[in-house]
Amino acid sequence: MVNAPTDDDAFVIESAICQQLDRSGRYDMLERTQEFMDMVVSEQVYQLSGEVTESQIAQLGERWGAQYVLAVTAKNINGSMRLVGKLIDIKTGRRLLTVNNFRKINNDNDLTFLSATFATNLENSMKSKL
To answer: pLDDT under 50 in the chain at which residues?
Structure first.
């Protein structure tokens, strides 16, 4: 059974990623405005069709003056949370890296550990690519 993460799960995941990237001091992140979030939601609905390309995601980021877009997908599959992150170059539309982590989630500590591990792996991968 595949379930979308809850809002609380998404908050934990987002917080871990932002904290790790902020702590590194190497990245400036674009603040999410309501307008941006509306565009993202519209894009996510389209993504469910399976027809979204890295180029289309790059176009979304370009509208906001970003160099890179980090698209993270979270799925709860049979009690295990899977996080997949793709870093996309805005200029080329190419996927620069993909990070994939999963863990059985029995409690909040498991999700926190997964999120922190994912964020660390993401930041380490970004260091080597950027």
So the answer is: none
In angstroms, rounded to a whole number, what is the distance separating the alpha carbons of residues 102 and 80? 7
Distance CA 94, CA 47 (A): 17
List the structure tokens of 101.
Answer: 């982590």
Q: What is the pLDDT of residues 23-59, one digit of tens each?
A: 888 888 876 555 666 666 666 555 555 556 667 666 7
- Rounded CA-CA distance 81/102 in Å is 5
Q: Are 14 and 28 within 8 A, CB to CB?
A: no
From first CA to last CA, the distance across the chain in angstroms is: 37
- Number of other CB atoms surrounding residue 99 within 10 Å: 20
Asked whether 75 and 6 are in contact (CB, 8 A), the reply is no
Phi then psi for residue 9, to 5 deg, are -60, -45
Shortest CA distance to 30 belongs to which of 65, 58, 56, 71?
A: 65
| 59, two tokens | 């176009």
